[in-house]
Amino acid sequence: TALSTAFGQAVLDRAVLDALCRATGTSVYAAFQRNLVGLAHTAIAPDLGDWDWNAWLAMLAPASRIDARHTVGMLDDLEGDAVDAGGLPMSLPAVVKRYGHRCFKIKLGGDPVTDLARLDNVLRVLDSLQPGHRFSLDGNEQYADPAALRALCEGLRHLPALARRPDALLYIEQPVPRDASLAPALASLDPPAPLLLDEADGTLDAFPAGRAHGWRGVSSKACKGLYKAVINRARCDRWNSEQPAAGRYFMSAEDLTCQAGLAVQQDLALAALLGLTHAERNGHHYVDGFGEAPETEQSAFAAAHPDLYELEAGRPRLAIRDGRIELGSLDRPGFAHHADPDFDSLRPLGDAASMVPA
User: Fold this and answer.
1) What distance in Å separates the CA atoms of residue 231 and residue 233, rounded to the nearest whole number?
2) Ramachandran region of residue 35, left (φ > 0), alpha (ψ -120 to 50) or beta?
């Protein structure tokens, strides 16, 4: 698929960028701000042919911290303070109590009646636990029926919790299947919050094409391509400057199970570079800390990035304090890391098939 192809290229791009930063003794932030990466007019983004890359990149101002947006799944427990054997939270109240999240991402299932009823319950819990919270909705391509999507949008406008604070809903992520993202009907949908491309963002021209069909946002994921993300960020600035009175174009940072170490650090650094203020983080819900990585590797990353990890239950885990992740230690020579994986412990790529159950 287009996304899997992009992932292969993204891995190579990240490695080359890391080598460039190490060779020049610069952080990834400085490498972009000084345009050491060589961004210029390119045929792959003809709409930015006259864009002043040097001036624009020089204005990027990465933050030293970012809000962590917690993913609320369809089956997540909305009550109680349950934790697992390792002390990690299992219910929504336990998560908020443990991490202090103020930003959330709520999953949808494709049935407007069921989704609206559950959303009403989720917002009731969040209004009680964290007044003033903000959230996004993720349709995960489940709304293939245009009538169902219209019913969802209409129901959202009448949801009591949302009616009281309509600005709490940030955007609706990829409600329709990726292959239906350019359907003419979307342009007249009039959703209660802007639509954001995610799974449909498989090529460099996906965002401009989506713009013509009513999409106003696109996600950033390091696995989809860091240069694509930077190009799309420039597009947002250009389009917003051309029509400041209309609905603004924007980017978000979404997760794909980024695990502790290089994956989460480089993904967070990209989000910070783009000026994003919050990022979905879900990798720490699927993998405890560094998972099966050697203890020497875990200790090296924890020592090199003490603001990003904290020792808990005898192992380093991603540190989310008061809903935020500190990123200061990522601003150093190299692509957002001052420790390396234990490469000798990694399994050769040719053995990958044996790791997947038949």
Assistant:
1) 5
2) left
b/e map of 213-243 (b: 16 or more CB within 10 Å)?
Answer: bbbbbbbbbbbbbbbbbbbbbbbbeebeeee
2-303+313-340 has which CATH code?
3.20.20.120
Q: For residue 218, what are the contacts with CB-CB under 8 A and spacing of at least 6?
A: 196, 197, 198, 201, 206, 207, 210, 232, 251, 252
- Determine the average pLDDT of the residues in 230-240: 97
Is the pLDDT at 78 greater than 70? The verdict is yes
- Domain spans, the chain: 2-303+313-340
* Alpha carbon distances (Å) from 258 to 283, 292, 298: 5, 15, 15
Residues 47, 235: contact at Cβ < 8 Å? yes
pLDDT tier, 245 (very low <50, low <70, confident <90, very high otherwise):
low
Angle value at C-alpha 69, between 65 and 72, nearest 5 degrees: 160
pLDDT at 66: 98
Q: CA 324 to CA 277: how far, in whole Å?
A: 10
8 Å CB contact between 292 and 259:
no
pLDDT at 357 over 80: no
Local structure of residue 140 (DSSP, 8 states) = T
Distance CA 5, CA 203 (A): 10
Asked whether 335 and 266 are in contact (CB, 8 A), the reply is yes
Q: At 111, which helix (H) or strand (E)?
A: none
Tell me if residue 137 falls in helix, strand or coil: strand
Cα distance from N-terminal residue to C-terminal residue, the chain: 22
